[in-house]
Amino acid sequence: MFYDTDPSKSSRTMLVEDGGGRLTYGEFERFYESVSGLLRPGTLMFLLCENSIGAVALYLTCLRRNVVPLLLERNLDRHLLAGLIGTYRPEYLAFPADMEERMCGRGGEGEHGPAEEAAPVASEETERFGYRIFRSEAAHDAAADGLNSELALLLTTSGSTGSPKLVRQSRRNIQSNAAAIAEYLELDETERPITTLPMNYTYGLSVINSHILAGATVLLTKHTLFEREFWDFFRKEGATSIAGVPYTYEMLNRLSFFGMDLPSLRTMTQAGGKLSPALHKKFAEYAQATGRRFIVMYGQTEATARMGYLPAKDALRKCGSMGIAIPGGRFRLMEDEKTEILEADTVGELVYEGENVTMGYAACRADLSKGDERGGILFTGDMAKRDAEGFYYITGRKKRFLKMFGKRVNMDEIEQMLKAGFGEIDVACTGKDDAMRIYAAGADEDFCERAAAWLSEKTGIHPRGIRVLPIEKIPKNEAGKTIYKDLPDDQ
Amino acid sequence: MTNLEKYNKIFRGMFRKTDEELPALKYRGIALWDSIGHMDLMGELEETFDIRIETQDVLDFTSYEKGKEVLRRYGVEI
């Protein structure tokens, strides 16, 4: 497993923090020795994550020690966290040291914290890297609900917050996906990826897993692309790759990234949603002109992380495609549950088969004892088509469509049309049958009128079915995906 | 409208703050002024003052006050 001991790596640097902290693979072994004895195997830990050495080292320790971590963002809403704790009754709660007052209920007047009733588990190593671990007093009761022995890791379903629904990932899932990613990205120990995504997000985590497997060095920062500190760290440590969601690439474009002097950069990967074809082309052309690689990828938390990738050599030729299945995986398109689509250029639901298809979901503690419910097959809920050469194109999501006066309309395509037609405007399409609503960030009345008229003309949808409304900003999660349920509810 | 009025109007509108609250605003200091907010802010300022803010200046624009210095480099006196 990628998190097991490998003496040949011990002198290599595993993690570097922008605050100056470093950890070699050999030093991680000492961290593990110090911390693992404090944790009982077969238990559950809630790990509030930030991109730091403490968080990554603790995560890897959990995997090796057979403690199942649920990775959560450190800023998760207090009430949501309390709800999750109530639902899953974790034996351990771990968080950055600067959250201790808040977590232990000593922050505000009369406010309770989730770790209030818990006992600290002391370790010099975790202290050194700024993490606190608390063991819940309720741990003894919870021990009755044993965890499935294959279960390695729990993640929230990306996009939805507030939902207690978790994805159950097995040891085989995370190992096979890390190995497939390292293979198709041709990772070796000289790689130095810089974090631009949170580690509790499946894509961010897959960068860490695949690079640890390769014996590489992961550069950890909490700064954003719009901060000078990020780029100073990038240059000082010679980052070789950057991983981004579509929004990351919009930010890079905004920053005139193409003119930046970044000699160490070799690879840019993109996942977490479909990049606009215009930006895909721009970055693919930049990569080709500067001898770099631009690799579009496709995945879901339900498939551990990655399912497809577009090889760098095809980035321009197949602009707009998410590529082919990763090593060891297979895609097919289904007309319905039983009928496979064999013809090219025909849209159907994308189905993936591979070792990285996760065990299933969990909604309560008892579900954590369940075994594999999917048998290696995932109906992705994404609609796709395949061209004659076998490259796949995502055309939308199964459920994001409206019937407009009898005609099926894909809301993701409406968004892409508006972005293509009006430039960089951020829009979110929602609504009900015969009443589509489009929110346009920062738009004025004049724009809304023009956009509605333009869209009606382009799609042939009757104008009374389309309303374009101004909104201050489109609600997004940390990965930049639109949170549709947070859009205004007015009709 | 003076340049200051235009500048303040953009900040008030984007970050839902009053004039009195503006001088304390910093990038990542409030939820609305995150990376997405920053990108939108740059776009609004460019449109309002008819300028194109360069990479280094996008990074230098770390607060409401610092932003005034940045705009001065483009001949926009606030």
What would you say this structure looks like, in words?
The complex is a heterodimer of chains A (491) and B (78). Chain A is α/β, with parallel strands linked by helices and 491 residues long. In chain A, 27% of the residues lie in helices and 26% in strands. Chain A has helices at residues 25-36, 53-65, 78-88, 100-103, 124-128, 139-142, 171-184, 202-213, 228-236, 246-254, 277-290, 411-422, 445-459, and strands at 13-17, 22-24, 44-49, 68-73, 92-96, 119-121, 131-135, 151-156, 166-170, 193-194, 218-220, 241-244, 267-270, 293-299, 306-310, 324-325, 330-334, 340-341, 348-353, 360-362, 377-386, 392-397, 401-404, 407-410, 427-432, 435-441, 466-471. Chain A folds into two domains: 7-393, ANL, N-terminal domain (Rossmann fold, 3-Layer(aba) Sandwich); 400-486, ANL, C-terminal domain (GMP Synthetase, Chain A, domain 3, 2-Layer Sandwich). In chain A, helix 7 packs across helix 8 (202-213). In chain A, the strands form six sheets. In chain A, strands 6-7-5-3-4-8-9-20 form an eight-stranded mixed sheet. The longest helix of chain A has 15 residues, at 445-459. Chain A is built from 13 helices and 27 strands. Chain B has 78 residues and is an all-alpha fold. In chain B, helix 1 runs antiparallel to helix 2 (35-49). Chain B contains four helices and no strands. Chain B has one domain (3-72): Non-ribosomal Peptide Synthetase Peptidyl Carrier Protein, Chain A. The termini of chain B are close together. Chain B is globular. Chain B has helices at 3-15, 35-49, 55-60, 64-72. The mean pLDDT of chain B is 93. Classes of the chains: A alpha/beta (491), B mainly alpha (78). The interface between A and B is medium-sized, with 23 and 22 residues.
